[in-house]
Amino acid sequence: MSEVMNAPLQGGLLARERTVAGPNFNRWLAPPAALAIHLCIGMAYGFSVFWLPMTKLLAGTDDATCKAQGLLAMMSTTSCNWSVPAVTHTFEMFIAVLGIAAALWGGWLEHAGPRKAGFIAAICWGGGMALGGVGVQTHQLWLLWLGCGVVGGVGQGLGYISPVSTLIKWFPDRRGMATGFAIMGYGGGAMIGAPIAVALMKHFGGGNASAGVASTLIVMGLIYFLVMSAGAFGMRVPPAGWKPAGWEPPADEAANAMITRRHVHLDVAWKTPQFWLIWGVLCLNVTAGIGVISMASPMLQDVFGGHLIGLDSLTALSTAQKAAVAASAAGLVGLISLFNSLGRLFWASISDHIGRKATYSTFFILGIALYVSLPSLGHLGLAGMFVIAVCLILSMYGGGFSTVPAYLADIFGTQMVGAIHGRLLTAWSVAGIVGPLLIAALRQAQINAGVAHNLVYDRTLYILALLLAVGLVLNLMVRPVHEKHNMDEEQLARERSLQHEQHGAAHAEHAARGAFGSVGVLAWAAIGIPFLIGVVIALQKAAALF
Fold first, then answer.
1. Residue 23 domain-assigned?
2. Which of 283, 424, 480, 511 is most buried by its number of CB atoms within 10 A?
3. Domain assignment present for 201
4. H helix intervals, 380-488
């Protein structure tokens, strides 16, 4: 497929050499371009607003007949509504395809450059959502899966990794912060996209959200295509030899064995023990975090019940009181999105000062303490402390995603970090499927065994803490890559020629020295204002908790 991608777009406006920065570019214009892409694909976390409306598309269906339908029949039926599990498979698909696409085409992306990869990501994610909208309109579940799940998943994978290696090269002095900026967008995309989706469904459906799902998906697909395209065309890459004005690698960095000055090729990197240790570290961190995300709202309702609305009793709630409890717990979803997003920038920036390995150790040690404390906080009725603990956990979940690219750059060098990162994201695909299945199975098993609803999460949380303990051990085992795995000068020169890095190298000293100026202000405002609006909406929803 890389040949197919390359052929029609070879050279011209999308060519990597056309994106090498000139003298007037400012490196602080790269983060908003990356954020434009990540804020769009980050709507993946907000797709839950579509699930219930998608299950009520048809009126007057025969419930008895429809309940007897299997998944295969549901894929093409036009006489029965879809089930919630059937439509939520879409989320599992685009997370799985994200990792697969990133792994398959990460190497191609390094050579094609962030503009071409970002533009193809815009076509796939925006076009996939529109195709999914057609699937909803025609009531063809397989088309929803194909559009949002498969085609959209390819867009997710390419869009996720396309800015990463670029930002790392622009900010050798702040690798963690740079990737934190981009990947923060993925965590915050739902804060912006979910309210827009809800408003559009209400608008197009005349108050009936189900009637507006198809049009909403199509319109949002178009919006995301345009915004991601703008981000892709705004990306620039530094020429070979470029570094920030007045910056030199710290003298003590040479003595830090965990930060290499050399580079490991993709084909070698994924065969090293270090790659698989970090793969396990990310997978376990994500599995535990997804476990909390997937059960946060129902867990809060089950554990605290009427306490969330000031009642003493956990039982005998009226319908209105149950609705109030659910509304209060929904505020946690907004807080989760906020901490998931801001934690990506915070922890990645912290890692620039204490190191990636120490940062991940902090995730695991602090995470174990928090996971083990949650059952006790629930038993004591300390809802506020419980919410704070969950928010801290989710900040570290997001921080794990944003810190890992810099971790890989430290261990394997920056030359092919985007491609290596792409291979590593298969850990996310595995965790995205295994995590929710594990949590749901454990919860149901305990309910079947007669465990009270407010106690069913205790054992699950202890198991998640155990997973974090395994992750801590794996992280402590990470060591520098052996010298034999590094590329020699000839291999490095060949790789740089494939990436067209020599274009503009003669003027690297003078490249990207432009002023921030009005263009920078407008670029950051275009990204920052919607993000801040999303933060305000999330905080308003969270206010119901207090």
1. no
2. 424
3. yes
4. 383-412, 417-424, 426-448, 457-476
The pLDDT profile of the chain, 546 residues, written as one tens digit per residue, is 444 344 444 458 888 888 888 889 999 999 999 999 999 999 988 888 898 889 888 887 767 777 777 778 778 888 888 888 888 889 888 888 999 999 999 889 888 889 999 999 999 999 999 999 999 999 999 999 999 999 999 999 999 998 888 898 899 888 899 889 888 989 888 889 988 998 999 999 988 888 999 999 999 999 999 999 999 999 999 887 888 888 877 665 444 667 888 889 989 999 999 999 999 999 999 999 887 776 666 666 666 665 555 555 445 555 665 555 555 555 667 778 889 899 999 999 999 999 999 999 999 999 999 999 988 887 787 777 888 898 899 999 999 999 999 999 999 988 888 899 999 999 988 888 777 777 777 777 877 888 776 677 788 888 899 999 999 999 999 999 988 888 888 887 888 777 665 665 556 677 788 899 899 999 999 999 999 998 888 888 777 666
What residues contact residue 152 under an 8 Å CB cut-off, 6+ apart?
94, 97, 124, 125, 128, 129, 132
Residue 314 lies in a domain: yes
CATH number at residue 40: 1.20.1250.20
Domain count along the chain: 1
Domain span including residue 457 = 29-59+73-243+253-545
The answer to whether 492 touches 415, Cβ cutoff 8 Å, is yes
If DSSP codes are grouped into helix, strand and coil, which group holds residue 259? coil
User: Integer distance in angstroms from the first to the last C-alpha of the chain?
Assistant: 52
11 part of a folded domain:
no
How many other C-beta atoms can be found within 10 angstroms of the C-beta atom of residue 127? 18
State the alpha helices, DSSP H only, in 58-113.
63-67, 71-74, 84-112
Task: Tell me the pTM.
Answer: 0.87
Greatest alpha-carbon span in the chain: 76
Place of tokens 């934190």: 180
Q: How many CA atoms lie within 13 A of 63 on its CB side?
A: 2
Q: How far are the Cα atoms of 35, 162, 424, 515 from residue 109, in angstroms, in the given order?
A: 18, 7, 15, 29
| Residue 194, token pair as written in the block | 């979910």
Q: d(Cα 7, Cα 462) in Å, to the nearest integer?
A: 52
